Amino acid sequence: MNKKKVLIITYYWPPAGGPGVQRWLKFVKYLPDFGIEPIVFIPENPNYPLQDTSLNQDVPTEVKIIKQPINEPYKWASLFFKKTSKTISKGIISDKKKQSLVEKMMLFIRGNCFIPDARVGWVKPSIKTLMGIIKKEGIETVITTGPPHSLHLIGLGLKKELKIKWIADFRDPWTTIGYHKQLKLTGYAQKKHKQLENRVLNTADDIIVTSFVTKNEFLNITNKPVTVITNGYDNEKRVDFEMDSKFTLAHIGSLLSKRNPEVLWQVLADLLREHTGFAKDFQLNLVGTVSEEVFKSLELIGLSNYVNNVGYVSHEESIVFQKKSQLLLLIEINSEETKCIIPGKLFEYMVSNRPIIAVGPKGSDVEKIIKETNTGVYFNYEDYEAIKRYILKGYDLYKNNALISHPIGLQKYHRKSLAGTLYKLL
């Protein structure tokens, strides 16, 4: 029996690093178990701000991968403004008052000259290439995943030209994502983004989102079916590790300029001052890209000597940090726009057996999942006393070798279970 062929159009693919890669890498791994043959379409010469070659080993050897050349504006910009171009492409945008003239200029160009994003030049040549491939391979279903949301315009073009089923997967929202306001959009650009978002949401046959907040937002724009398929966790190969001897709080992933929980830094500074034993045992591990603004906040409050700045590591190495740390930090920007953000690392955190301290806006989807799975505690930015009590409680458990999480109901977030939900749409 021939498997049903599905074309997946994605920008991020190994050796790209970061959580955006793993979503479709894992779907491609498990869809064949449900009688689906995935064919993956990616750029031939992408400009990935982060790379993780360890993810190459997760690409199934039998999967067909088709590549199309792409012109990368970030690559050209890096020839003249290397540091600024690299930080913007990673999503790190300085506070408005601290932006240099170069950063302001690049943000304006990014927001107004490349709509919806800097990969829009890949759309037309990709449509031209894929029309022949879809006919040749007998493909009936196409999936586009964004960001970059310009990839949805490839789906839009293919839907217009061919009789295909098109599913649009939104790993993040489009016009309501937090950094959108920082792109210095003109009125024309804002209107154009809205128009394109509306066309995609009302032309695709099915829409997938990663959060319940985004689903509700999109249901106000379209009558098309919207399905929530979160990110998840996979079975990782066994890793050797020893639990940290210190009372480590670890944040794994990017800490952007506005993802800067000063209430947490204040709690830690006060605990260090008030408890001699805590000061001797405590260490803050920052694993991943961290903005200068965060480092300055830590320095001003007196935490610099307790910070272990690890920097970016491979996915394999990040798993080790998750398992050996005493407590895991999950931080989100305190804003209405970030209620829908469910970081991919949350699900790996949940199976690490380490308790999670999450700090973010009220009413977020992260809060819902952490409570449902009993994997930690979620705090708002106003919860100074509650955060302090929880860390002290964790410290007491650590001293008694009893600090561990007690999760429930995690199986539905396994990557294979999520692939089964996707299969039902296919």
Give a brief rundown of this model.
With 426 residues, this protein is an alpha/beta fold. The chain folds into two domains: 4-71 and 115-232 and 415-425, Rossmann fold, CATH 3.40.50.2000; 247-399, Glycogen Phosphorylase B (Rossmann fold).
Total number of helical segments? 16
The counted number of beta strands is: 13
Taking the alpha carbons of the first and last residues, their distance comes to: 17 Å
Which regions contain 5 or more consecutive residues with pLDDT less than 50?
Answer: 76-94
Strand % is: 15-25%
Q: Quickly give the CATH architecture of the largest domain.
A: 3-Layer(aba) Sandwich
Rg from alpha-carbon coordinates: 22 Å
How would you name the CATH homologous superfamily of the largest domain?
A: Glycogen Phosphorylase B
Q: Strand order, main sheet: write it out.
A: 3-2-1-4-5-6-7
Order of helices and strands: EHEEHHHHEHEHEHEEHHEHEHEHEHEHH
Protein name: Glycosyltransferase family 4 protein
Keywords: Transferase
GO molecular function: glycosyltransferase activity
